[in-house]
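ok so I'm stuck.
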Amino acid sequence: MAATHAETKPKFLIILSRALGDSEFFRPIKKTSNGKTAPTEYPPSSTEARRNCHDDNSKIPDSHDDLEYSVNMVYFQTKHRVWRPHEECPRSRRLSQAKMGDTELNFLAIDFETADYEPDSACAIGLVRVSNGIIVSRTSYLIRPPREEFVFTYIHGISWEDVKASPTFDTLWPEIAPMFYNVDFLVAHNARFDQNVLYTCCDAAGVGRPKTPFRCSMITARKVWGIYPTKLPNVCRHLQISLNHHEASSDAEACALIMIKALEHRE
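replied:
not stuck anymore, here's the structure
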């Protein structure tokens, strides 16, 4: 008898279902020998494994766009019904839209500029803190990257001469780390880029990665307003947000305002 799709990829199903939530509420299903469906059981250590999975942002879908590809590959079961491919399960919807209508959220908008193609080459960071839908702090720093060569000066205007006396990331981190505490999420425009830079710099500095999840204002702008193309200047022009593009504090503030407007739009 040929193996079913669920039976041939048990590790994928277990990892995906852990990322999506509680196994008792939302579990992948497989077909039994009599043709009926039954929930896939987790191993005894599933509680700890799921906790570790939630602590590792790399194992959680970065966005609802990513999640949709996964949902279309398998069947899911809630307490009330089975959700089959191309149907929108409410659990997946909650994962991508959780608290999106709540303007009382606290979040941190972040933007990095880099010196070269490597993600450890952060040369500037902009940080904008939002509390209850209001910007409460703005700050930016120049960072001395590990190499003197600058490839992207023509984009952001920053050169080695501008940053050679600035702190390195590991020196700066104790000062900026408190801004990452007590927030519901981090947000960036094209968040995968900034998330990669942040995690790589943290790893290089020997400090722990922030465990706060990332949201992407680019994906949010597409979903809320249907804006295409969705580069930061395009979105700011559509929403009438002033922008000095590739200046870290301006980019971070624009990102924060996009998310604030999206939260207000979803109410």
